[in-house]
Write a structure and sequence with these properties.
Helices cover about 40% and strands about 30% of the residues. It is built from five helices and six strands, in the order E-E-E-H-H-H-H-E-E-H-E. The strands form two sheets. The protein has a four-stranded antiparallel β-sheet with strand order 1-2-3-6. Helix 3 packs across helix 4. It is of the alpha+beta class and about 160 residues long.
Length: about 160
């Protein structure tokens, strides 16, 4: 595990972020994650560090994580999934098809969007709820900025 915290200051903004890399399963899976906050005081707290580490574990444990939030999902990907879900419900009445497709899309978002996923330490909460609680507790915005996940033998 390797952790790096950096703070950048200029006249327009103060930005701190914590980067963490994590290798799992004897080197088979790896995750890089960047979580941002507003001050180095928060970036250097134990709770923030644990949150960043937990985000690595969350991503590595959920194979399908591809996006941070629903807003990051390209419209083409959303429409492709909706088309699949509509075709799966083709034998149902039209109004029911729409509801089934929307329900399956919400379930798909839980699989591919990090913030929509059940938090691995407490599945009654989503990752977004945990992030928002920590942000409230720390008194400043905490944002998952980006991540990359790697599996040995896959592109």
């Amino acid at each position: 595990r390797r952790r790096h915290t950096r703070c950048l200051s200029d006249w327009s903004s103060d930005v701190c972020s914590s980067d963490l890399s994590y290798i799992h399963g004897g080197g088979v899976k790896g995750v890089l994650v960047e979580v941002g906050c507003e001050t180095d005081f928060v970036a250097n707290t134990e709770k923030f560090g644990e949150f960043v580490k937990d985000m690595c574990l969350q991503i590595v444990s959920m194979d399908g994580t591809r996006f941070i939030s629903e807003a990051d999902v390209p419209e083409e990907a959303k429409e492709a999934e909706l088309e699949i879900f509509r075709s799966q419900a083709a034998d149902k009445p039209a109004d029911v098809q729409v509801k089934i497709a929307e329900g399956k899309l919400r379930k798909w978002y839980e699989e591919v969007c990090l913030l929509n996923q059940p938090y691995f330490r407490d599945e009654d909460q989503t990752v977004e709820q945990v992030r928002a609680a920590l942000s409230s507790e720390m008194g400043e915005n905490i944002e998952i900025k980006r991540f990359a996940s790697y599996t040995l033998g896959q592109e």
